[in-house]
Amino acid sequence: SVEETEQLVELYKLLTSKEFRARMEGVMLLLNHCKSSPQVISNNIVQIFDVFILRLQDCNKKVNQQALETLALMIPMLRGALHPVLFSLVSAVTENLNSKHLGIYAA
């Protein structure tokens, strides 16, 4: 629908912003969409997670940590829909295990 398309455009815009606060807002918006309309996220999982995975490797530690913590909350909501992006997700999360930042490592 037009409303779903507008939601996704806004989500992409925030997740790819040059401003770290906007990227953090995008991560939270994705979580809200997972709660309110998981089917829309599931139907567009590859396109959304192509951008979200970049936040799991964000150069800003606050964005990176928030994305990791948010991912942990999204996994039970999206379950089987994550199969097409699972390999990329595991790779991105695994890279964070070497982080010297305690918040990122813990997340």
From TrEMBL:
Top-level taxon of the source organism: Eukaryota
Gene Ontology molecular function: microtubule binding
Listed InterPro entries: ARM-like, ARM-type_fold
Cellular component GO terms, alphabetical: cilium; cytoplasmic microtubule
GO biological process: one example: microtubule cytoskeleton organization
Protein name per UniProt: TGRM2 protein
Gene: Togaram2
